[in-house]
Write a structure and sequence with these properties.
The protein has 375 residues and is α/β, with parallel strands linked by helices. The protein has helices at residues 10-26, 38-41, 59-64, 66-83, 94-108, 128-134, 145-151, 162-168, 177-184, 200-214, 236-239, 251-256, 267-274, 288-298, 306-311, 326-335, 339-356, 361-374; strands at 2-7, 31-36, 46-50, 87-91, 112-115, 137-140, 157-158, 191-195, 221-226, 244-248, 258-264, 279-283, 317-320. The relative contact order is 0.11.
Length: 375
C-alpha cells in the first residue's frame, strides 16, 4: 500500500521514521512519499519537502514567511492528489496538518490517520472539531489524552509512548559512573545535570539561571546536556567564569549518572523521570508577572510538565515565567537532596512509568493502520 506522511520538524521526523519502519514490518510492500527529514528518507521512499524549509514556529515567523507556508501547502495538496495514496498519516504539526486533513477528506476522500496528537488540551481546544471531522483515527502517545478526547465525543487510541521505546533500546544502559566520567573527561564528583532546552532562545533564557542556582552546591559538578543540532560553541559564552562542562549528544547517558537535574519543560522532563533522576522543571519567559497571569488564564491544564500531566499530580516542582529565578531554583534543588523528598518524587515516577505502559508505540500504531486499511 501507499502511505503519504507529513512531519514538519525534527521530532516529527524521528517519530515518523520509526512509524515507517513499523509499517514496513506490517506491510513489506509499503511505499512512502513524505514531507519530513533525513531519518524518514533513510527508510526509503520519496522526500518531497524537507522540514527545514517549513518549520516556522510562532505567529511572527509564520507571518513573515506566509508566502512560503502557502506554497508548501499547495505543493503538498497537489502532490497527494497526483500520487493518490491509500492513506495520509499526519505527525503532530497541527497548523499545517489539520489544513491538509481537511483537503484530503473533503476533496480526495482518502483515509487520514494522525500519529501524535497536537497539544490541543493545553490551548486551542477548538481544534478538536477539525480532528473529529477530518481524521479517521488518532493515535495518542500520552494516556491522559484519551479521557480528554472522550469528553469531546471522539474515541482515540493510546498506543504507548516513543520515549519508552527509545529508552528501552538505548546504548550504554549498563554504563558505570566511572566509565562515563572517564570517557567524558569529567571529575569523580556527583553530577547535577543541566538540560536547558533544544532551541537557542531556551538556552539563552534558562542556562545562566540554572548555572547560578546550581553553583551553590560545591560538592557537585555541573554538566550541561548538549542538545542535538546545537553547535557546542554556542554554550561557550554561558560557561565562561564557571566550572561547568558540556557533554554533546549524550543526554541519556548523562541523566542516568546524575544525582539531580534542572530541566526546561518539554519531553526532557519525561526522559528525566523515566531515568529516575529527581528534577526541578523551569522555563523562563519575559513579560513579568502580569504576562504569566494572562498565560495561566489561557492555559487549559493544571500543569505544564509531562510528568505532572501524566500523573495528574504535582510530582515535580514547576517554576515557570516570573517564578523561574535562580533563588527559587536553588531552594527547590536543595530539596532534591533530602531523602524523603527524593523517595516521594521517585514514587511519582513509578506511577508515570506504569501509566505509560510497555514499549511498542510505533508498532501498535502501524498494526492498527494496516488492519484498518485491509479491513
Amino acid at each position: 500500500m501507499k502511505y503519504y506522511l507529513i512531519a514538519g520538524e525534527a521530532s516529527g521526523d524521528l517519530h515518523a521514521s520509526n512509524l515507517m519502519k513499523a509499517l514496513l514490518r506490517e506491510d513489506p510492500d509499503a511505499e512512502f512519499r513524505f514531507f519530513g527529514g533525513d531519518l524518514m528518507a533513510a527508510c526509503g521512499g520519496m522526500l518531497v519537502k524537507h522540514y527545514r524549509d517549513m518549520a516556522y514556529m510562532g505567529f511572527i515567523p509564520v507571518l513573515m514567511n506566509l508566502d512560503k507556508v502557502l506554497a508548501n501547502m499547495r505543493l503538498c495538496k497537489q502532490d497527494i492528489a497526483a500520487w493518490c495514496p491509500d492513506a495520509v498519516i499526519l505527525v503532530d504539526y497541527p497548523g499545517f496538518n489539520l489544513k491538509i486533513a481537511k483537503y484530503v477528506k473533503r476533496r480526495l476522500n482518502i483515509p487520514v490517520y494522525y500519529y501524535i496528537s497536537p497539544k490541543i488540551w493545553a490551548w486551542k481546544e477548538w481544534r478538536v472539531k477539525s480532528i473529529r471531522r477530518y481524521v479517521d483515527r488518532l493515535y495518542s502517545i500520552l494516556p491522559f489524552e484519551v479521557p480528554f478526547y472522550a469528553r469531546h465525543h471522539y474515541e482515540i487510541e493510546y498506543v504507548g509512548n516513543p520515549t519508552v521505546d527509545e529508552l528501552a533500546v538505548r546504548p550504554f544502559a549498563d554504563e558505570t559512573f566511572d566509565d562515563f566520567v572517564t570517557g567524558c573527561g569529567l571529575e569523580r564528583k556527583p553530577i547535577i545535570a543541566l538540560l536547558a532546552g533544544s532551541r537557542v532562545s531556551e538556552i539563552k533564557n534558562n542556562l545562566p539561571m540554572m548555572i547560578e542556582a546550581a553553583e551553590s552546591f560545591p560538592d557537585y559538578q555541573l554538566v550541561v546536556a548538549g542538545a542535538p543540532g546545537i553547535p557546542p560553541d554556542l554554550y561557550t559564552p554561558y560557561l565562561q567564569g564557571h566550572r561547568v562542562k558540556v557533554v554533546q549528544d549524550k543526554t541519556y547517558r548523562l541523566l542516568q549518572q546524575s544525582r539531580a537535574a534542572l530541566v526546561t519543560s518539554g519531553t526532557a522532563t519525561l526522559e528525566t523521570a523515566l531515568l529516575r533522576v529527581p528534577q526541578v522543571v523551569c522555563y523562563w519567559v519575559g513579560g513579568g508577572k502580569l504576562f504569566y497571569k494572562i498565560f495561566e488564564k489561557i492555559l487549559k491544564v493544571p500543569y505544564v510538565s509531562l510528568v505532572n500531566l501524566i500523573a495528574n499530580a504535582p510530582v515535580v516542582c514547576e517554576l515557570l515565567g516570573y517564578r523561574a529565578t535562580a533563588v527559587n531554583l536553588r531552594r527547590e534543588l536543595s530539596r532534591l537532596f533530602e531523602e524523603e523528598n527524593r523517595k516521594r518524587m521517585l514514587a511519582g515516577y513509578d506511577l508515570v512509568t506504569d501509566r505509560l505502559g510497555a514499549p511498542g508505540a510505533p508498532e501498535n500504531a502501524a498494526r492498527s493502520i494496516v488492519a484498518a486499511l485491509r479491513g
